[in-house]
Design a protein that fits this description.
10 strands, three-stranded parallel beta sheet, disordered N terminus
C-alpha cells in the first residue's frame, strides 16, 4: 500500500490597492497556518491586518504602502499567542508606485509587529 505524501499549502490573501486613508482595507479572518504551509498577505497602501493567527507555518507580509497596520483601527493588536511560525516582511512596490519609500513602509509594519511582543 502506497502512503500519500503531505503537501505544503500556499495561500495568498490579497487586500492590496492604491487606496487612501479614507478607504483603508481590513482583513480580520482567523488563520491557522500549519507546519509546511505559507500564507502571503498582499497589503494595500492603507490596510489593517487584524487576523487571529495560530499554527507553525510561514507568514509573509507584503507592505503595500505607508500605513500597513497589524491590528485594527481601534488600535487593538492581533492575537498571535498560539502562533510560533516565522514571519517575513517585504516591501510590495508594485502595489502603489506613488506611495512613499518602501523602506519606510516595511519599517512601519515591523514597528507595529514589535509592539505585539
Amino acid at each position: 500500500m502506497a502512503l500519500s505524501q503531505a503537501h505544503a499549502e500556499n495561500k495568498t490573501i490579497d487586500i492590496s490597492g492604491d487606496n487612501t486613508d479614507k478607504t483603508a482595507k481590513t482583513y480580520a479572518t482567523a488563520l491557522t497556518i500549519q507546519q509546511g504551509d505559507t500564507v502571503n498577505v498582499l497589503m494595500a497602501r492603507y490596510a489593517y491586518f487584524s487576523s487571529t493567527i495560530s499554527g507553525t507555518g510561514v507568514l509573509n507580509l507584503y507592505a503595500g504602502g505607508e500605513r500597513g497596520y497589524l491590528g485594527n483601527s481601534d488600535k487593538k493588536w492581533n492575537e498571535w499567542g498560539n502562533y510560533t511560525g516565522d514571519v517575513h516582511m517585504w516591501p510590495y512596490k508594485q502595489n502603489a508606485p506613488s506611495a512613499s519609500s518602501n523602506n519606510t513602509k516595511v519599517s512601519q509594519v515591523m514597528a507595529h509587529l514589535h509592539n505585539l511582543t
